[in-house]
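Re: [help] complex structure
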Amino acid sequence: MQVLQIPGRAALSMLAEIGRLSIFIGQALSWLVRPPWYGRQILRQMIDIGYYSLPVVGLTTMFSGMVIALQSYTGTERFSAEGETSVATVVVLIITRELGPVLAGLMVAGRIGAAMAAEIGTMRVTDQIDALDTLSTRPMQYLIAPRVIAGTICLPFLVLIGDIIGVFGGYVIAIYQLGFSPSVYLSGTMEFLEAFDVIIGLIKAAVFGFIVAIMGCYFGYHSGRGAEGVGRATTNAVVYSAILILIFDFMITGFAFVR
Amino acid sequence: MSDIKIKIRNLRKSFGSKHVLQGIDLDIPNGQSVAIIGASGTGKSVLLKCILGLIKPDSGSAMVEGIETVGASRRTREDVLRKFGMLFQAGALFDSLPVWENIMFRYRQKNPLSTAELRQIANETLADVLLEERVLDLYPAELSGGMQKRVGLARAIADKPGILFFDEPTSGLDPITSGVINRLIRNAVDRLGATAMTISHDMNSVREIADYVAMIHDGHIIWQGSVKEMEVVDHSVVHQFVNGLPTGPLTKYAESI
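Output below.
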């Protein structure tokens, strides 16, 4: 029987954590739709998430677009496929459907999810959250709701810009290194790209933005005492955000593209 | 209206197997300043947080102006909390806001004034805690520990609450700054005619701030009386604590927690 105790305890602990997280998400969602809305907090978070994440997301997608262009060129060469159009198509589809949202989600999880967990965790251990409560302000409404709103709204915009930069990265490599014709490459980019691809990518981005914000807030809000507690909250926020992003990416892809 | 502002009956709180509060009974009279003293880890801050509803007690009653706060609805609790001003142990100022916005945090929710008017009121409140106008636009990280406590006090008294709670107001401060904070707290309580509860184990602070003193030990209030009575108390535990004696009944207890 003792052999079963360890996995049993782990399973119970995991279920308890899932229950706590579900309640937290339910509370966060309920506060999204109830006034007052803290406009300044939402704006501040949008600037943090949207504006300040732009360089890292732009760089990541640009280099990814470049690498995809190079890799797909060497791949199509082996099969004697038509290089110019197929490279352009591969770059745009992979960026918009997959790498744009996933890379942006992971980058924002590392940058913003960690920062949210650290900030809210520090507020928890220094009694700032209790202070909010005693000052007639609901922490869920003042701290959590603005971050969730900003994360869910900003990530699709970030991904849209990242998509354009990523495709541009592929274009630069195709034209200046592989010697493709710009007009053929651009027509190859547009020919097989459907609005559906972009829309699904943006839906993914909104889901990932929600995940990053809610996990950062959840682990920060339930941070343990002291620097160690805040450190653990930060690590957990990034790790669990990344795992959930990959799981939800698979689920949305399966739902949207596999028929 | 009753002369008792805060009435606590049989309040109990445990964390796992640790029974921190084991049936606290306490009355805080209207307009009086009461200090709760006791060794570290005896549940002074837990008692305070139970009254404010920041921690849910296992059982018992905590009534503020006749309104039960234990198990109260969110709305009732929020109504009760509006009567309170609270100075936290580490100040608990909001890092992302400048001093004037920290001070006006609750006041501006009830009074939609212009920024200039709010800054003016914040400046007047800062003057009450002997801080200059130049502090208004600083952020908490730019302030010394003593200044943070004073800004925290300014935030607590900004909208003139009827009840003030102070959690270890002088912890981490040098004796001079502690003396200044004690005097500011006493002045604020007297000026507002507020009912005050101070958690402390700094006896100089207790002597300056409090009218009455209650001591928590082993989950119970073991003694209460006036500050004058405290000085001549013959209760061995209280006597050892008040006089900071290294040997006595508390020594073994302190080592065990």
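Chain B touches chain A through 21 residues (CB under 8 Å).
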